[in-house]
Amino acid sequence: MSGSYGERVQKSQALGLTGEVERRLSVTVMSFGYKEGPPPLANMVFDVRFLKNPYWVPELRPLSGRDAAVQQYVVKQPLALDFLDSLSTLLAVILPRFVDLEIGEFTLALGCTGGQHRSVALVEAVADRLERLFPIYQVIRIHRELAAPFAPDSSGMAVSPGTTRDVQEQA
After folding, report:
1. Considering the domain boundaries, does residue 170 fall inside one?
2. Which domain holds residue 84?
3. Taking residues 37-64, what's their average pLDDT?
4. SS3 sequence of the chain
């Protein structure tokens, strides 16, 4: 829509829509592995290699952070819970400000060594929290290193449909 934010809100209200329709924010939460290349461009990047690595647990090694066993191993760590709580608090303050400034996109990237376990599990946990906290925002999950085979999408990001990019919208 063109025009100022105020004009768009007035137009939405004239159509019987709430101003919330105009307050949409697309939040991308992305995992990546440092050994696979530099961090992606993002508004915020966190290195989560401070957590215990499921790679060193033989039964978890072949799994990814999308598997329940790996998620439990990673997210149940006290340090992971502290990190998730602190990050949720920070995002609860920052994301509405992006909306106020009419910035429509925000990207958060979480990296670990290989981009298979810790960062993936935390992306899933953060995205779940964001969907509960901000149901009007569009939450996009991208797992950069889980793409196989690698094929660039329209943004140049390597993705495999249904594997690395899950778009979840809630009205």
Report:
1. no
2. 21-147
3. 97
4. CCCCHHHHHHHHHHCCCCHHHHHCCEEEEEEEEHHHCCCCCCCEEEECCCCCCHHHCCCCCCCCCCCHHHHHHHHCCHHHHHHHHHHHHHHHHHHHHHHHCCCCEEEEEEEECCCCCHHHHHHHHHHHHHHHHCCCCEEEEEEHHHCCCCEECCCCCEECECCCEEEECCC
